[in-house]
Amino acid sequence: MSTQEQNAAFAQAAEGCRAAMYRVALGMLRSPADAEDAVSCAVIAAYTHLHRLREPGALPGYLMKCTVNACHAALRRRKRETSAEDMEIYGGTQENPDSVWSYVHHLPEKYRLPLLLRYGEDWPLQDIARMLKLPKGTVSARLSRGLKMLRTELQEEERI
To answer: DSSP per residue over 108-142, as a string?
Structure first.
């Protein structure tokens, strides 16, 4: 495959995955501007290290992994740079407050991210485990616990 064909294939794959990458980034960062930045950084990182990819069919997973990594980097920067008074800025989401996803966004990240990838983006369990560098059983347990926490939260909301 020529460089020009490889670039065209990358651009097409990146554009096809962009919406899913943004949704995952928004779920992790809870800020539309930060999510857009993370997606842009992920696309740049994926393109820069494209030579590492052995199989062209793995590009969507690679782009999503780069997105998760870019979000983790943004969260580390935010932790260093954001004062405690500014933290409420990141508490809200752009979603309908009655949506189930608005409740998912309030879960701890270790449960929120697997739920977003599995049920929001329909990624297979094995791919999520590889992406997060966790055993498949750990991801499965986090999905189960996250769903249980979500169920509890929704049941409490119904009682109010």
So the answer is: -HHHHHHHIIIIIS---HHHHHHHHT--HHHHHHH
Structural tokens at position 20 = 């899913």
Dump pLDDT digits (tens) for 139-158: 999 999 999 999 998 888 77
Residue 58 tokens, joined: 């793995």
Spatial separation of the C-alpha atoms in residues 52 and 46, rounded to whole Å: 9
DSSP state of 53: -
Fold of 1-94: Rna Polymerase Sigma Factor; Chain: A (1.10.1740)
pLDDT tens string 55-93: 878 889 899 999 999 999 998 887 766 444 444 444 444
Q: In whole angstroms, what is the distance from residue 84 CA to residue 88 CA?
A: 8
Burial class of residue 1 (count of CB atoms within 10 Å of its CB; 0-12, 13-18, 19+): exposed
Structural class in CATH, domain 96-160: mainly alpha
pTM comes to 0.65
Give the position of tokens 């998912």.
104
Task: For the chain, give every domain's residue range.
Answer: 1-94, 96-160
